[in-house]
Design goal:
Largest sheet: 2 strands, antiparallel
Distance between the termini: 86 Å
Structural class: mainly alpha
Radius of gyration: 32 Å
Strand content: under 5%
Helix content: 40-55%
Order of helices and strands: HHHEEHH
Oligomer: single chain
Number of strands: 2
Number of helices: 5
Length: 115
């Protein structure tokens, strides 16, 4: 392409103009009354459930149904010390189980002591 043809091409390309963003309209006045914050906080505090009653809706929101009857699928992400993770992995390998089964067993043992 010759230099004059390149110059003609560059001058014929239209560049769209970009407008400035509009700012939000300014508030006219403080006509709206303030919300009673203290009343809102009192309402929240009065609806706090005891832990036993709060556990069921918490699991209902967080857990998924399992294919195993009377079980739920609860996904957890654990951040463990490397040494502990390696010990759990070693225990799983020696017992020919997966690490999830080892952790579930430990949780079930602990839950028996809570009763």
């Amino acid at each position: 392409m010759s230099s004059s043809a390149a110059h003609r091409f560059a001058t014929t390309v239209a560049v769209p103009k970009v407008g400035r963003r509009r700012s939000a309209p300014r508030a006219r006045s403080n006509d709206q009354a303030e919300l009673p914050l203290a009343a809102t906080l009192r309402k929240r505090l009065s609806t706090v459930l005891d832990p036993a009653a709060a556990a069921k809706p918490a699991i209902a929101r967080r857990a998924k149904p399992s294919s195993v009857p009377d079980h739920v699928r609860l996904i957890l992400t654990l951040e463990l010390r490397r040494e502990l993770a390696e010990k759990l992995s070693l225990k799983a390998i020696k017992s020919e189980r997966n690490i999830e089964a080892i952790i579930i067993g430990l949780i079930e043992e602990a839950a028996k002591r809570w009763r």
